[in-house]
Amino acid sequence: MSDPLAPYEPTPRDPFDLAKVGHLLRRAGFGASLRVRRELVRGGLEAALRHVQPPAAPLPDQALQAAAIAFGDLERVRAFRVWLCLQGVHPLRERASCFWHGHFATSNQKIGDPRAMALQLATFDRLGLGRFDDLLLAMCRDPALLRWLDNDTNTARRPNENFARELFELFTLGRGHYSEADVREAARAFTGWHVRDGAFQFVARLHDAGEKELFGERGAFDGAAIAAAVVRRPESARFLAGRWLQWLVHPEPDPADVEALAVVYERSGRDIGATLACVLRSRLFFSAAAWRSQIKSPAEFVLGTVRLLGATAAPTALAAAMAGLGEAWLEPPSVEGWHGGTAWLSPASWLLRSNFLADLLAGRSGRLRPAPGTWLRGLRSPRDRAKAAVLLLLDGVAGEDVQQGLEAVAHEHAADDDRCAAAVLHAVACTPDYQLG
Amino acid sequence: MATCDRRSFLQFCGALPFVGRGFGAWAPLADDRVLLVLELVGGNDGLNTVIPVDDARYAALRPQLQAVRKGAHRLADGTALHPALGRLRRRLEAGGVAVRHGVGYPGPDRSHFRSRDIWHTADPGLVRVGARTTGWLGRAADLVAARSAGLGAAAVGGLEVPLLLRGRSVTVPSLRRLEDCQWLAPTAAGPIGAEAAVRDLVDAGRGDGARTHAAAVARAAVRLADDLTAAMRRYRPAADYPGTALGRDLQLAARLVVAGFGTRLLHIGFAGFDTHARQLPTHAGLLAQLDAALDAFAQDLAAQGRAERVAVLVHSEFGRRAAENASQGTDHGAAAPVFVLGPVQGGVHGPVPDLQRLDDGDVAATMDFRSVYADGLSWLGLEPEAVLGAAFPGAGLLRPVR
Amino acid sequence: MVLNCCPLLAVSTLLAPGAAAQGGPALLAAVPDAAVVVAAARAPASAVAALGAWLEPLPPGLPPEVVGQIGAGLAAVRAALGGATTDWVHQFAAGGAVAAWVPGPGGGWQWLVVTEPADATAAAAFCRARLPTVPCRVDGGRLHWGTCTAPAGGRWAASPLAAAAASPGVVGAVDLAALRQRFAGNWSLPTGAAQVVFAPVVHALAQAAWLQVGLTAVGDRLQVTATADASLRSTAFGALLADGDPPGVAWPEAAIAGLRLDRSLRRLLAEPASFLPPEGVQAVAAFLSIADALDGPRTSFVDDLLGGLHEPITLLALPAAAADADEAGPITLPAFAAVAGVRDQRAVDLALRTAQLLATIANAERAQRGEAPFAVRRRRDELGHGLIAEAPPWRGPGLPPPDRQLSPTVWAAGGRLAVASTTAAALAACAAEAAPAGGRGGDQFVLRGRALAAALAASRPALELARMLDEGEDRGEAQRFFAVLERVAAALDVLEVRLEVEAATTRLEVLAERWR
């Protein structure tokens, strides 16, 4: 059996073309303008991989981040995150931070502290592509997460198991790979891991320093020891590998692929960035099974549309639109994060997607610049306009029926350039294929 | 920019299979009974909702949280309703509410997600939620769809369709405001490309799941837009709903019921019940919201002449531990009371929770939750076994339909 | 574009003040009866010069491209008029001018300009060249130019504007009754809190028959006055006016802005049903059910606290104290203060007890969020005494949050009581000089441009980010936007708005003074 994670090598029959660039940018970023996509096709696979994971990209501007936090207002923090994703300085990192936000799903609705939420996201920016050991330890000391899971009331006298349970169930191992006793013992280890003045604080007098037994081993474990022990569990590697393949490859990953990626992850020294890079250059990633196999999240739909058009828009309005579509960043529905997949798309949310785009393209909301007419400038015939729109939003891949439908739309509005462009682009974005990531 | 002309939009959609089937020719349904499942998400503290005030163990287990006994509304069996549930108590006395103590399932799971999944799927043996897992109300929606046209089921209040409403063949919409669902497209063209995707429905294999779903949703959306526009014209509220999210959701539910296009199954989630710390004010606030919104809903339906046709089942994924924690809160527990409003056998049902005989610190279940479901399904005129996979004795909470 | 601009351009030049001439009142006879808005200038010849003199020089330090745009605009005006602007106005309307706006069919507007030109032939030629489709005729030495051909029956010559038109300067009048009729469908006035805040204006717009407007520019001062022939005093809402001769506070030199609304909060809260819709009454009841409970059952927020103060209350925005450069975060909050004269000392004690309780509650809530409490203490010095809450030192990650700049204070000194967001602001509000005795009352608003510019500059990083996020601008665009705003603000010495409710009229006065 061939290695599913063997590198993809472009061949004349299976070239690295616009469709493959589009696929890479959809999964490892939020898309890019047609100009950038064409450059990446010319530059080849290696250049494209460097584009999504640039080795020397700076971290988000600290001063701007401080300004976003200073408002003390969740909308600003959320809009700043949207702004970062629209910039596309390090596409994979921006996507990875979103992934980790869904993984360690913390909601401001409970903690009411936008600053702590912003700092948690900044931690994802900093560590989200580094070693998982470091990321997990940082999360065990993250003020927002500790308060979200009530660990700030977890004391030696009265342990609170919430944090310990989610640590195993949702963050590292998955159900069935730990016992209730493990949860109880881990909860004791995290007693006294509290928050003060927005910072992590270890309160020794509230900590249970006694001996604990975890996964069959004994010791006076503290939280750090628990984090260090859990990342070494083989189930943790499989659990994370499965989550990454769900994100990057297919909503229902093949168990053999999960197994193979778990090995890659362990061999890399639990390096997240290296593991994801291995997926992104693999045959599996560029396989037919992975292509358009996911439902776009509202963020992918909203931000992706603006980025595919190579346009700018007002982040505050885009963040609000995403929230309306069911993805309110910093307010996930539960600690399980967003369920994603087919749950993103219901008949009601489909109408909302359609209406959001109609408003955006008509200039009624979102302050899209430049105006839609720009994108189809110079093209007169309905056929050319339909083709250009498919190239912009679907990497040129659309069935003949879609082409014909679009031509009819272009024909209907031929008199007015902006309206025609808005109508054709809207029609492309309402095709079932455009809902797929 | 001009919005789409409804007629041309539907003409376009008419070209698609299924869409528009039965529309225009739709006639009032013979059966208009509606079951609304109101889910208290997060794990409602059953012992502080229906309080065993006379049990000395209660005060011992809850030195802080027992404060709710003051002002609680006494019931016939020696328990009492939380002070914030005054309106519900009046309705209970008038015979419009049934309370069943101790509803749960064997081998209770303390994870929110798994316990919620179990309540949603009606399958305590559920291993993992997969792409093909269905919910009990979704399976009921399949049955409803098989015998009538219209919007058989809907989730109200959120955009995600909860697992509970996932059916085998039906795509259930989720609604927040009816106004959201109008078609604003700049062109008369509907969802281009849905036709090709519909063809793929026939020979869909692995990897086509997302595409098939997207196409099916596009078609359902077209139908939804039209249904709801009609519904908006038909309903006038007959009660003063509170301005809370729950009030809005329940009013939308009333609107769907009254609009009369065949909605039989509804779900509303009401979150915030995960009261691990400083529970008293939070819990009281949530119950007060629940009390006011449910009362308005019942009043509205009565005025619309639908009181006997709508049953509301209020449950949570689990109760909370019998003993309070050190943060003046409670942690995840097991069995808890459920409420049913509407055409019920009014009063309190089942034995009062025995705090002497706790099961690992939790209230033990004295009734399987599927018996409550079976009750609702029978009342709806659907076959409980077809939905639940096995026969369960009915809970006797709803009055048999004449 | 030219088609749209030219009538406006012609009209706006006519609105400027000018030297004595005879045309104004006589020209009004030529205004169509159907007109609802009319402007008249006895002699507009020096108008452009006066307005130009106020405008120029442009604020220094504007970005070159903005100066370029304004410069290009002025150049384009001169080019369109074919020479120096003032010369052209003299040629066009040496003997006076009136301009009228007339509701047209289908919801649109028509306009008409009537002037006494120095050179009627040249003026007419200009009009025909500019807007060939707009009728233009010379009749008895007068130029009639405009899209309106409705008949003039002399209504405007007998209107209140006729008397004013004889006076120097540029005057205008609005037939409010007719305007209301025209917009009957979508004429909605504010209700609730906005109705209380804007009560005199709301009443005037709803009841007055005429609104008369005057505009003058002299040296650094640009003054606009508007008088309506209706007064709130004759209505139930008149009881909301604080009245009397309040020992008000003079605007401190350093203040960014000040506001004194001539309303009695005490009467509003005591009898909400007289002034507010049912929801407002309910909101007041809910507020009082908490406010009255704070100091126990024996004192009343309305009678004992508000009743112990002189109304109206003065609101001040003051610059923040200079912060350490390395402590400066992206937002520097200006300080806000509310200050009033004390009528009964017991009000001070009640305010201090209430503040103490609120501080305790706020600290309890902070503790629940895991935040360090504010340190609350009583202070007394030779000038006054009060309660001060000070933010705890910041030990968390990153820069301190902006709320650490606050030191909420209740301070009593010099016969005044101040509630402020910082101690410095409370002391400044109490120490401010008294407004001159016999000074004018009414609603007053003052804004000092340079102080505003400095406040904007202190929070530039955050303001720019807000613009980037909300408007979708890039960083450069956002920086330019605030650079322009700051420069424009800095070019304004002071902006004063005053609203006076007389026995039978309501008078609004706006005064803008340049800083050069």
Annotation keywords:
heterotrimer, A: 437 residues, mainly alpha, two-stranded antiparallel sheet, 22 helices, globular, C: 516 residues, alpha+beta, 38% helix, disordered N terminus
List the helices and strands and how they pair.
The complex is a heterotrimer of chains A (437), B (402) and C (516).
Chain A: H1 18-27, H2 34-43, H3 45-52, H4 62-70, H5 74-87, H6 91-103, H7 108-111, H8 114-127, H9 132-140, H10 143-148, H11 162-172, H12 180-189, E1 193-196, E2 199-202, E3 212-214, E4 217-219, H13 223-231, H14 234-248, H15 255-267, H16 272-280, H17 298-308, H18 315-324, H19 347-361, H20 382-394, H21 400-412, H22 417-429
Antiparallel strand pairs in A: 1-2, 3-4
Helix pairs in contact in A: 4-5, 5-18, 6-8, 8-9, 9-13, 11-12, 14-15, 17-18, 19-22, 20-21, 20-22, 21-22
Chain B: H1 6-14, E1 34-41, E2 50-51, H2 56-61, E3 73-74, E4 80-81, H3 86-93, E5 97-104, H4 112-121, H5 136-147, E6 153-156, E7 174-175, H6 194-202, H7 209-234, H8 245-259, E8 265-271, H9 279-303, E9 310-316, E10 336-341, E11 347-349, E12 367-368, H10 369-380, H11 384-388
Parallel strand pairs in B: 1-8, 1-9, 5-11, 5-12, 6-7, 6-8
Antiparallel strand pairs in B: 2-4, 3-4, 5-10, 9-10
Chain C: H1 2-14, H2 23-28, E1 37-41, H3 47-55, H4 64-81, H5 85-93, E2 97-103, E3 109-115, H6 120-130, E4 136-139, E5 142-146, H7 160-165, E6 170-175, H8 176-182, H9 193-197, H10 199-207, E7 210-218, E8 221-228, E9 257-260, H11 265-270, H12 272-275, H13 278-294, H14 301-305, E10 314-318, E11 335-341, H15 345-368, E12 375-380, E13 384-390, E14 409-413, E15 416-420, H16 423-431, E16 443-448, H17 449-458, H18 460-471, H19 475-490, E17 492-501, E18 506-514
Antiparallel strand pairs in C: 1-2, 1-6, 2-3, 3-5, 4-5, 6-7, 7-8, 8-18, 9-10, 9-16, 10-11, 11-15, 12-13, 13-14, 14-15, 16-17, 17-18
Helix pairs in contact in C: 17-19, 18-19
